[in-house]
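chain below, 250 aa
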Amino acid sequence: MRWSENLFHQEANTGIFPIQSWANFERQFRSQFFLVNAEADAVNALEGSAYYQGNRTVDNYLNSFLALVSDAGYTDPRTLVVKFRQGLRMNIQSQIATMPFGRPADTDPEAWYAAVWRINQVQLTNEAFQSTFWSTTMAPACSALSQPTPLSMFCLSQSALPPVPPRPAPPVLSGGIPIDVNTVRKTHPAPQRGCYRCREPNHLVKDYPHHLDVWRLTVEQQEELIEDLMALKDAVAEEEVGSSPEEDFV
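prediction:
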């Protein structure tokens, strides 16, 4: 080392070793090997984001954090918890902060260190289990899929395939048979209107052979008869008014 070489060089030139006491040796050793601004550098690192865990493991982050707070001289428990929690990965600090039972206090940094270590151990155990499970269960399936499939499994012979039934021919629509309207009328004659008063089919109401008998009419027929008579009366009155001679007032 250059510092020790300088000491031995001075001793060779002067015949006296430059360091005469332990206190002198400690003072020179600190000046050579300890940074003068170590405390200020640690404080600056803790006030920024360079000390965050990031992709580092929990053990690496924890050791680096403890060294920084020691160099910075941080001793307040609440400050240590805030800084330590702030540098953790989001999933880890959220898992600890939302623990329903056994959540460490915000003034107990040692409890936070222990909780992070336990969560890290559980995660490592789970990852080891998953890697073992996938390697033992999925490896045979993946190896079977990676094997080339013989071409004969896809190229089936024509005789091995089931015969396809022929498609039935579409039905031929016939031209139909013309309908004889006269024949239909003969077989199904239209009903006769008949007389609406006596309901007899051999005559109409104008040829009613019987004398008008009100007692033989139904209520509906009586109402129709009254309406006819009233209409006839109105028509006769209009004709008489129209045919009356005009008076001569001259």
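The two ends are 166 Å apart (CA to CA). The mean pLDDT is 75.
thats it, cya
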